[in-house]
Sequence to fold (529 residues):
Amino acid sequence: MGYRTLIASLIVVAIVVVPFFLSDSDAEDETYFVEGGYTYKILGGTALEAVEFDNALAVEHLVTPSYVVHDGVTYTVTVLDCMYQSDVIRSVTVSSTILGMPYIATVFLGSNISDILVEEGNEAYSSKDGVLFDDKMRTLVMFPKGKALLSYEFPETVSTVDDFAFAGNLALEEVLLNEGLMDIGAYAFEGCSNLRSINPIGEMNILPTSVSIIDEGAFSRCENLCTVLLPEGLRIIGANAFYDTAIEHVTVPGKVLDIGMSAFGGCKNLEYIDVRGGQKYTSLDGVLYETGDDYKTLMMYPSGKTDSEFVLDYQVSQIWPEAFNETQYLKKVVLPDTIQIIPYNAFLNSESLEEVDISHIVIVSDGAFYGCTNLKTVVMSERLVSIGYNAFCQTGLEEVTLPASVQTVDPLSFSNCKSLKKFTVPEDSEASLRFGIMAGSFVVEEIELLSDKIELDDGALEIGSETNPVTVKVTKLKTYTIPTNAVTGDYTTLDVKNLGERPYPYENLIVVAICIIVLLMIIRIFRGV
Fold:
């Protein structure tokens, strides 16, 4: 009786619940519809979000929709989250009903958009001279990518430059920032490659004294920006804030509370960084450090610093990622034994680097020496346990012998090394060699596998390519079998021989000797007869 009751209950639940889920699924399908070249999402009631625009229907002067009639219902478009990326569009007028643009940097992608206008009555946005602001003109929201002005002066009301506001504008050469501006948003001027003047006095560019935040990537790739005077009230310098600019020297105000990773990375002309009376940060001989009660971290070695050798202080216990990014003159680095980890991209594209001693390093992280094309000498540690992805990719190494302590060699760690000829895995090694550790290192002639405890992942010994097939001599222990999937393609051939193997192995010589003795005995017998 109990089972019948249970079955009956399940049937009732199915009858009640299944239609509910089906109707809910149908409702989800009905939250989107297409009308007049736009895809809309119903936000609730009669409010709509425009989520997609058919750019094939673009016109030179485009006005965003305000009201849409669908299935007899009139909806109001309140949110704009589509992409206007057609080169046909010259101007966009934001309708009076639009109250939000959550990803505004992706809305006005068209490279020829020179003016963003706003209809009267809009309660969230305003426009002046084709530049988009919030309704109070306190935030400069978007300076169109296609606007051809050479110089632009900020209104006095602006306190914030929005993220990506000027990004990618190739015409702008000068901006005059207003006193009262406090926050320069993430990637605000990113890629403004002709920007060279900011409130210039003589040859110096001077940020307003009111600026307290320069966010992530704010001036990155402004490759003609040669000087900048940071204000005393500055508190935050975001990661990559001045990445790949032409600045030659930087003075960091003492009140700065946070400097992001690679804030001045890739600046090939940067010769020194100076910190004025800071408590959290300091500089020594033009090199930037973060200091604590019992530690010291090297944050940034200027790319354009002209010294050929650098010896780290024994008080330094850590190196930041990308700390030596694209150094131009540095040939030799001496690390203290207080440093045990080379972080990711630490020496990225430092083409001048020739020698580094990592004889006490435990971990070499991803991309640590990527692109160090002149790096020919590396002293590895018997404490080394891990070599990261692309760690020595595109270096000038000619021969590599892994320490027996290494446990993991990640994919592509020694890939595209144009001079690498020999790779050795020593006795007692238990290393796991991952995919394509020497892929693209086409001059490799010899691989020695001197341990029978190593693991070769799929494609671990893959080296050649269709245009550069490779044959490599592999010497291994007789007790070790190379997995067939160690080479998965058709462009790498392994010429394998066992260690100590001869054309006539020792065992064969014994057999030959026995045969000779037997033959001599037979001859002797016949002679006796």
